[in-house]
Design brief:
The protein has a single domain, classed as T-fold (Roll). Helices cover 30% and strands 25% of the residues. A nine-stranded antiparallel β-sheet has the order 1-2-3-4-5-8-9-12-13. A three-stranded mixed β-sheet has the order 7-6-14, with no helix packed on it. Strands 10-11 form a two-stranded antiparallel ribbon. By secondary structure, it is of the alpha+beta class.
């Protein structure tokens, strides 16, 4: 199937190609925005083929010198490199790396801000003095492309302005599109780039875990025969757990997140599991995260 695009009623664009479902918004002069959208569309059409050609290597653990040649593939590998002491493949950063590739089309003069939302992993462009609201969607199992297209009731919000060293947002958890080793409903990370946020969210979500026989796990290869995780057990079902177990799992993830923050790999993170949440609370703090759904936010970007 060839890449397809549709312009939405509010002016955003929806790009789709294979597993990639991307929603793009931008503000600025109409001519600059239109040119950037066209440039992004031309670039988008070639990305999937580039990744497929290097897919066997992209599914291998990160180690040694980078063996990849394509710009998106190399970005994936380098985003995952800080975590190579454990098991990680470049696929942990694929969605963020694709979004980051496209946001480069929106850095031209005349564009004040842009956001590339690749299934909840987001790359940002912010001109000086510009800002964006980032909507936190805690249960990513409920988040699909229809919600991204039509508007989402968020559980919390971030405000990211151009002065912050944040141009990427990513969310991971056992309920999401990709496999997770942990039990987090969601881990949302703000980082320097979208690829770096994607890799870090994966790592932190894996760390939100607790030993309990009621948690159902299966080898990844039994769920998807070509999974890059092979026989590693991934989480497929988490029953309601006692609050103290949930807290223990969140604290384990928070320790990992704080280590990454101290190393300069992330700016902040919010970890959510069964109604509880924890945050590293760096700079861009969560404005609200409670039992009620926040109001719909027109023009927001949703993680």
């Amino acid at each position: 199937m060839n890449a397809q695009r549709t312009q939405l009623p509010d002016g955003r664009w929806h790009f789709q190609h294979g597993p990639m479902d991307i929603v793009i918004g931008a503000n600025g002069s109409p001519q600059a925005v239109e040119a950037a959208h066209e440039q992004a569309w031309q670039r988008f059409g070639g990305i999937l083929g580039e990744l497929v050609r290097e897919l066997p290597v992209l599914r291998l653990p990160v180690q040694g010198p980078c063996p990849l040649s394509g710009p998106v593939a190399r970005r994936m590998w380098h985003a995952c490199r800080p975590y190579r002491s454990g098991f990680i493949t470049p696929m942990a950063a694929v969605a963020g790396a694709v979004a980051q590739e496209l946001v480069a089309c929106y850095t031209a003069s005349g564009i004040t801000r842009a956001w590339i939302n690749n299934g909840g992993d987001i790359a940002l462009h912010l001109a000086p003095s510009q800002s964006l609201r980032i909507g936190l969607y805690a249960d990513i199992d409920r988040l699909g492309v229809d919600e991204i297209l039509g508007g989402v009731q968020t559980d919390g919000q971030f405000e990211v302005d151009s002065a912050l060293p944040v141009r990427g947002v990513a969310t991971s958890g056992w309920r999401g599109r990709s496999f997770s080793l942990g039990i987090a409903d969601s881990v949302t990370v703000l980082a320097r780039t979208a690829a770096e946020a994607d890799a870090a969210a994966t790592v932190i979500a894996n760390a939100v875990d607790v030993a309990d026989a009621r948690i159902l796990r299966r080898p990844a290869c039994e769920l998807k025969d070509d999974s890059d995780l092979g026989a590693i057990p991934v989480t497929v079902q988490v029953p309601p757990l006692e609050p103290e177990l949930v807290s223990r799992a969140l604290h384990a993830g928070l320790r990992r997140a704080q280590t990454l923050r101290a190393a300069g790999l992330i700016w902040s993170a919010v970890l959510v599991c069964q109604g509880q949440f924890m945050t590293t609370a760096a700079g861009a703090s969560v404005q609200s995260l409670d039992n009620h759904r926040g109001a719909r936010q027109a023009g927001s970007v949703f993680a």
